[in-house]
Amino acid sequence: MSGPTLRGSVCVAGVGETEYYKRGQSPDAEGKLALKAIVAACADAGISPEDIDGFSSFSNDRNDPSRLAAALGCRELRFANMQWGGGGGGGSAAVAHAAAAIHGGLAECVVVFRALAQGQFGRFGQGPRRNTIAGDPAHTVPYGLMSPAQMFAMKVVRFMHEHRVDQNALRAISLAAYHHAQNNPRAVMYGRPLDEATYDASRWIVEPFHLYDCCLENDGAAAMILVSAERAAEFPHTPCYLLGAVSGSHYRAGAGVHNTPEYASSSFPTLAPRLYSMAGVRPSDVDVLQSYENFTGGVLMSLVEHGFCDADACNEFFVKERFLAPGGDLPLNTSGGNLAECYMHGLGLIIEAVRQIRGDSSNPVPDADVSMTISGPMVTPVSSCIFGTEATL
Amino acid sequence: MRGFYLAPGLPQPIPAPDGLDGPFWAGLAEEKIRLQRCADCRRWQWGPEWICHHCHSEAVGFEEVPSAEGVIYSYERVWHPVHPALKDQGPYLVVLVELPGADNVRVVGNLLGDPEADVVIGSRVRPVFEHHPDADPPFTLLQWEPVIIPT
Fold this sequence. Notes:
The complex is a heterodimer of chains A (about 400) and B (about 150). Chain A is an alpha/beta fold. Chain A has one domain (about 10-120, about 215-390): Thiolase/Chalcone synthase (Peroxisomal Thiolase, Chain A, domain 1), CATH 3.40.47.10. Chain A contains twelve helices and 13 strands. In chain A, a hairpin with a 2-residue loop joins strand 7 and strand 8. In chain A, helix 6 (about 165-180) packs across helix 9. Chain A is globular, with a radius of gyration of 20 Å. Chain B has one domain (about 20-145). Chain B contains one helix and nine strands; from the N terminus they run E-H-E-E-E-E-E-E-E-E. Chain B has one helix spanning about 20-30, and strands at about 10-15, 35-40, 45, 60-65, 70-80, 90-100, 105-110, 125-130, 140-145. The longest helix of chain B has 8 residues, at about 20-30. At the A-B interface, strand 6, helix 5 and strand 7 of A face strand 1, strand 5, strand 6 and strand 7 of B. Strand 6 of chain A pairs parallel with strand 1 (about 10-15) of chain B.
């Protein structure tokens, strides 16, 4: 790629997360969770929280950077950034923005963070409780189309129809996530394995999503610290460099009342080529992949749109064995992901991608040099990013 | 009089306070589907916007879709209730319907009939106007039923 690029400009100094809780069970308030995750990431990096001078988040995180900086005793605040858009679509975008700020000289040490306490602030997977509704939701909610699962099932049904995809393709994604969670003590579903028969017998939420096709809802927080790549040797872990990060969506992805022209999409058709161009890699170079599962159908379309699989070959491609670490062709969601580790709006998936480069994942992929994360399929904007070892620079 | 497809108690639609979709809801009360159409380039658009996304004209008004028959573009069968009003509803069908009479813009509604019936993407449906005259304020939903093609 010629021209400006983030490739190799920043590295990950440290990552951290709180304990992950079932929804509503955190003993800590959301703001305290955010602080605990940031402090943990600083400890992992071997730096003081006072050194943080930038904050980058997404999905309307409620924790204001000025207050966080005051609570952490940050010497100076130089960057406070929020990616617009809901769900986890902004996860990799928050990484991109932090990297751009560092690369552009706006800040030196930026923390990407996300905190959620649904017990304190209410759930995602419920319909609105009010007497009247106006605007875009007025055209869907009165027909019983109101939750994220219901919004996205409509896209996935169309995609599966166009490309004759079987239910077993979705099942493979879920089984792989639960398999990996059994080795991950942080995972909310640690000790709760899932097999084919249990998946098949599980109740429908909305066709084609069984219960196990849907993400968890959790309390907790996660954080990761980015600094200039020149400083990589200062930190205790194997250096992990950002090779590329992009965000956005395709033509009129935000058209109202489900009128996006390219409808059966995870919103990545224009992003993926830009990501690979910036990172200087091809899909076949990716050693391990974390792909945001709000619902398994989003993973299905994300992998197609990122060039891992032809849309008409999903039934052959989406088999569990391919997705299992350490030996599968494309180890997928190796922490258990949003389905079985924790739903931290996908920041946990980005941290897992970093851990694969550092070699300290609970399901390590041997010799992983290129590690990718896809954030928030089917919403707009979405984002994705690629990390690499020093050998990839 | 036909009953309501879904159990009562969901949030009821009201015209947007900014005025953007008022003619749509007024049209449903008169059993007409009125959607946005650009007076300059004559193309349809939905959901509603302040300008035409094709030619950027501000002259977007509402016109009745000349042929209201639709085609099922996608659908979903919902089982898990996410609102207390639907606790005892059981499964229901939501359809995304393309309108060939309006540049194939899409609208959302329910597919009337057996909620466990097979749904065929690409099949034809016709509108059914579900009036709620006793609601405050009254409103009308745009529902759909299969077009039975004689064999």
